[in-house]
Amino acid sequence: MNVADIPEVPAWLADHLRDGGIEELYPPQAEAVEQGVTRGDSLVASIPTASGKTLIAQLAMLSSIERGGTALYIVPLRALASEKREEFEEFERYGLSVGVSTGNYESDGEWLSSCDIVVATSEKVDSLVRNGAPWIEDLSCVVSDEVHLVDDAHRGPTLEVTLAKLRRLNPNLQTVALSATIGNADAIAEWLDANLVDSDWRPIDLRTGVHYGQALHFDDGEKRELPVRGNEKPTAAIVRDTLDEGGSTLVFVNSRRNAEGAAKRLAGVTSEALTHEEEERLEAVADELREVSDTETSEDLAECVEQGAAFHHAGLASEHRSMVEDAFRDRLVKVIAATPTLAAGVNTPSRRVVVRDWRRYSGDVGGMKPLSVLEVHQMFGRAGRPGLDPYGEALLLANGHDELDELFERYVWADPEAVRSKLAAEPALRTHVLATVASGFAGSRSELLDFLDRTLYATQTDEPGRLERVTDDVVAYLVANEFLERGEGDSLEATSLGHTVSRLYLDPMSAAEIIDGMRGATDATAMGLYHLVCRTPDMYQLYLRSGDREEYTMLAYEREAEFLGAMPSEFEDGRFEDWLSALKTARMLEDWASEVDEERIAERYGVGPGDVRGKVDTAEWLLGAAERLAGELDTGLAPAVREARVRVQHGVKKELMDLAGVRGVGRKRARRLFDAGIEDRADLREADKSVVLGALRGRRRTAETVLENAGREDPDMDGVEADADAAPDPDPADEEREVEDQASLGDF
Ligand code: ADP
Q1: H helix or E strand, kind and range, residue 359
Q2: Are 536 and 576 in contact (CB under 8 A)?
Q3: Which residue, of 370, 401, 462, 530, is most buried by count of CB atoms within 10 Å of its CB?
Q4: What is the DSSP string of 245-313?
Q5: Ligand 1 binding site (Cβ under 6 Å of any ligand atom)
Q6: What is the torsional sign of CA 379, 385, 391, 395?
Q7: In what helix (H) or strand (E) does residue 427 lie, and over which residues does it extend?
């Protein structure tokens, strides 16, 4: 189908697509149009990676907006929200507005009502529904990206319930669900009352196979020599072979550490193949990477990139990730070693894909677990750049003849699994039953069961009594914890506390833990509060490594008096272990709130800078929730919780709380100002300007902004000389960066 022949889309779209090099729709896209995706009909599109799902979503959203509606695009990961926004922002020049909803859970996102397209995670959408965002009812089109993730035990249920709620709020809603190729796309389509495009078509041929010994074995029976040198690993041999053909390789491994290790080793291979010009350009990229942050991870990444290799995982800052992806697309970086977490959403095709590790550690089974066929096929799908490569090649690696056979059976020839709802698991239902009652979707047990009947779970279960049974258990738990109340007959109502918990987007079990810990306490230290929120199921705790158990057991006894709630005995294995993991996580937060350098923290706890930020954000949110609960329960702890929250939010000791809250100040500058005798906002408004300028190392523009944000009437720095006595001791790393900053500000 020619782009000029797509019905019901805005008139500008055909030219816009042609400008981007798209003349004809890909066959699955044409089929989607024939199935009514631009006429407002619901659709499930189950097609391979890189086969143009995004355009199908855009056709649905744009035609819906053309008819006067608004669209919502649900992303599976927060990290993908900004990428999608960037993709959709190209429509702003035609007068459409695009908004991303991230951040604070407890708000109704009022401003989003003026957007034509909103991008959000399913958790965020769920929370908007809970907070009664009125514009949600006016939506005309919702797109769910990577809908096969309803199968995910942790996040799937939220997606499932959210789609059910949106469809209930607006029975005419067009639902477009995009999925990788799965075994039962028809079941998803049936659940969503949608038409179905289920296709294997790909824009570029894909050959899959296994490397074993000295050869590649392909799915079509062909065998091709690919020798591995004596002291070489097979991955290195494949990367070298690909480079000889002028191509690049994407290597999937099973952990962040392995990604970093592989990238460092493979850098030895890629560095041999670089031209002088490439080396220079890579050095420039490496410098940019170093500027993002001054951590060890950032330095490691820069060193790899200088040699033409990179690693990619969710522990990297998002600027790092996009710089790496750009350099890979520009064919400067020749190999990326990646964890699969973000692979699904990131558009980085390459000549060859190597799935080096087909097993991954799983906490659920307490050991290594094979990847699903679906996951491996999604990674395979990144092979081949349309228009650049004759075909893509995706490979697994076998160590022995038996493994060669096993990998063919297990992945190469296998069909992807069917997707199954995980809603009937208790933790999922706990959260969603409370929210469903609290936000008025159900007012009784029977209405609750009726609502749950619209979920994928209900269409899939062959054990009809199970959902009812688990629901009853969960209701009993929520009643016992005073989040729900039983009324006449089988009616149910949320208590005021229950409403708060639902709006705060807490797992009721987290809320119960926090409430229990705070009850009866008259005072609390920051450590006590950090530990409390780190114990909840809403915080992913740091793992205990070997040797940690002893260290943290000692620390637990030392600081026992600070804990809110009784410490379990050392002999209660599982519970004690959890307590220690929470303690490790809490101490990391305490370090952060004591102004320890980000780099030191990353090193001390063996995590990436992205992880530190992630834990800090979660802690800030949970402490905000605890503050609300403390207020509601009248415990008198609210001021202590607030202090702990503000300290973790800015990463500062108590005395800097006020200063660090001024926009443009932050933890480092707050410390410098404080050391120069400026202790709070009021001081900033009154202080001698030369002292402010000195403490901020002579940076006029910064000083002016800071003074303005502190509410000073005359922030102007004209003619002010920096007070040398106020200047902080030099910190070599900062110094270097500052020179760059100043140069770019033209501020000498
Ligand atoms: P998916 O989401 O299915 O993995 P994408 O939507 O990211 O795939 O599309 C992959 C690439 O194909 C994108 O770079 C996109 O611009 C391109 N593309 C999509 N549709 C067409 C088309 N009809 N003709 C040419 N290129 C297309």
Answers
A1: strand 359-362
A2: no
A3: 530
A4: TT--EEEE-SSHHHHHHHHHHHHHHHGGG--HHHHHHHHHHHHHHHHH--SHHHHHHHHHHHTTEEEE-
A5: 22, 25-26, 29, 49-55, 347
A6: negative
A7: helix 426-438
* 142 and 9 in a common domain: yes
Same domain, 525 and 597: yes
Which of the four pLDDT bands, split at 50, 70 and 90, describes residue 345?
Answer: low
Confidence of residue 346 (pLDDT cuts 50, 70, 90): low
- 421 domain-assigned: no
Candidate of 6, 55, 325 to mutate for ligand 1, largest count of ligand atoms within 8 Å of Cβ: 55
Residue at which a domain ends, from 474, 504, 534? 504
Residue with CA nearest ligand 1 atom 20 = 52
This prediction has a pTM of 0.78
Q: Is 705 helix (H, G, I), strand (E, B) or coil?
A: helix
Residue 471 lies in a domain: yes
Q: Which range marks the domain in which residue 46 is found?
A: 3-198
Average predicted confidence (pLDDT) for the chain? 90
- Residue 744 above 50 pLDDT? no
Which residues lie closer than 8 Å to 574 by C-beta, 6 or more apart?
Answer: none
Tell me: do 24 and 172 sit in the same domain.
Answer: yes
Q: Hey, whose CA ends up nearest to atom 2 of ligand 1? A: 53
CA dihedral for 379, 383, 386, 388, sign (positive or negative): positive
Residue nearest to atom 24 of ligand 1 (CA): 22
- At residue 553, what is the residue type? T
Give, in degrees to the nearest 5, the angle at Cα 151 between 541 and 417.
125
Name the least confident of 210-214, 301-305, 699-703.
699-703
Ligand 1 pocket, mutate which of 44, 204, 347, 374 (most atoms under 8 A from CB): 347
C-alpha span between 284 and 52 (Å, rounded):
33
Q: State the pLDDT confidence band at 735, using cuts at 50, 70 and 90.
A: very low
Average pLDDT over residues 416-426: 87
722 assigned to some structural domain: yes
Q: Is the pLDDT of residue 675 over 60?
A: yes
Closest residue by Cα to atom 18, ligand 1, is 52
Q: What is the CATH number of the domain that holds 543?
A: 1.10.3380.30
